[in-house]
């Protein structure tokens, strides 16, 4: 598996497995299948409600801990963020049955972001989170966080797919040593991604599917990607993206699919801020 080196020197696989929207009762089997296919990077979150199932699959797999790269995420904390962040982290660790995570992400750029980040910096210094980062941070908030804190996020996990490519975000992250990670790499199938004529045509030239073309396009941009699937066949297909390369002309054709807008959440939309901020996990 190809890796990227994060800004604190640790290695992160370029391709992993995401478990968002997999019901807890199906997650243990899905992660077991993904580990059998060869995935070693697992991406969960307190907000997904399936950390426990991820932990059980890890334990049963018998795969040495050092071979795995486990990411989980902190949900929004407001008052007493420093104390609550530590408590939320400990809950996640207990759920996962682990003594450390490889990457701990702030899930949303809301709440007491600075209190949360200070607590995450402490977890990182103590070795409980080998790397810390953020998710859903647009360039303005990301730069502010970088400029006003000691530790620069190792990763920013943001919506990135052929219809919302994030090139300006990517350039800013590169400039500041923040690894770009894609969520929703398939746009969850929106805009008929899996049968899209341009992606399918490029795929035919390599005897690959549109899905594999998308993952290859992300990897060639050095973007870490974490496709989700509950199907072992599709997990295997999504893992088989290292044996071919897109040409510059094919990369350029995909670049033309940019729509310049999110297909999911606008993190600048006040209604979305209110909706996400209302959710409390009770940890
Ligand atoms: P995604 O990976 O873009 O798409 C998943 C969908 O694609 C599922 O419906 C899956 O169906 C289908 N699929 C997977 N492989 C396929 C293939 N080869 N051919 C056809 N269909 C295929 O969506 P996502 O789960 O939203 O994003 C990926 C991960 O990013 C998440 O699991 C999560 O870990 C992370 N994420 C993070 C955030 C954040 O705020 N930080 C937000 C969203 C997601 P089947 O399962 O039936 O195969």
Q: Can you count the helices?
A: 11
CATH superfamily: NADP-dependent oxidoreductase domain
The biggest beta sheet reads: 8 strands, parallel
Strand order of the largest sheet: 3-4-5-6-7-8-9-10
Q: Which ranges are low-confidence, i.e. pLDDT below 50, for 5 or more consecutive residues?
A: none
Tally of domains: 1
Rounded mean pLDDT is 96
Here the CATH topology equals: TIM Barrel
Strand content: 5-15%
List keywords for this structure.
globular, alpha/beta, eight-stranded parallel sheet, 283 residues, binds NADP nicotinamide-adenine-dinucleotide phosphate, TIM Barrel
Task: Please provide a written account of the structure.
The structure is a single chain. This protein has one domain (3-278): NADP-dependent oxidoreductase domain (TIM Barrel). It is 42% helix and 15% strand. The chain is built from eleven helices and ten strands. The strands form two sheets. An eight-stranded parallel sheet has the order 3-4-5-6-7-8-9-10. It has a two-stranded antiparallel sheet with strand order 1-2. NADP nicotinamide-adenine-dinucleotide phosphate is lined by residues 18-21, 43, 107, 135-136, 157, 183-189, 194, 209, 211, 226-231, 234, 237-238.
